[in-house]
Design a protein that fits this description.
alpha/beta; about 220 residues; 3-stranded antiparallel sheet; binds adenosine monophosphate; 8 strands
Length: about 220
Amino acid sequence: MIIIMLGAPASGKGSVAELLSKEFNIPAISSGDIFRKNIQEKTELGLEAQKYMKDGKLVPDDITVSMIKERLEEKDTQNGMILDGFPRTNAQAKALDEMLEKDGKKIDIVVNLETPEAEILERISNRRICTNTDCKAIYNLVLAPSKVPGICDKCGSKLYQREDDKVESAKHRLEVYKKETAPVAKYYAKTGALFSTVLSQSVNRMKEEVARDVIEYLKEEK
Ligand code: AMP
């Protein structure tokens, strides 16, 4: 089972991916998380990625594609995976198709999360994340706050706000999304794997409902 999560920053990709990962027992692979781990560990890849990420820019395609290629060679992806945050450009989508084709694999579904633009910046600025990289739980100060402010419910570690979730960087990420990533949905619409759905507080659609719809869709497709 290969699932791709598309959507604007903080649209809920990571949260839905976690639910689908449990349902299908396949890893959720977040390109952003891999970059952040490398930044924390000060690897060569991390130092390079940081130059772009701090301003909300995309890491160049060649660096990102080779990082994902390496990750896809790991054993835990044998039975499938959920890609969260990759691909983010048409060039990355093409590179992924080539990688999968070589292994005789294909994408089962591309879940495109649509969230009203006005809600996106609010979601980004209210997002808080667990500092424990093995936990990475995601909270929202308004929509999904932790029980104790600033502390993760799951593991008790401190929560933090991502540097690129701060306002200037967040605005830039939204522009990059519109210009570079939104067209990727059109790329997948041509292959017929696209499943667009709304995840929005304003229309009262929650991550659990979206995950349920995706699971239903995949059952019907079988
Ligand atoms: P995310 O955690 O998915 O919001 O990603 C955080 C940041 O990591 C992005 O704003 C980019 O700077 C970088 N990044 C993550 N995935 C990609 C990708 N597929 N292509 C280029 N840059 C990426």
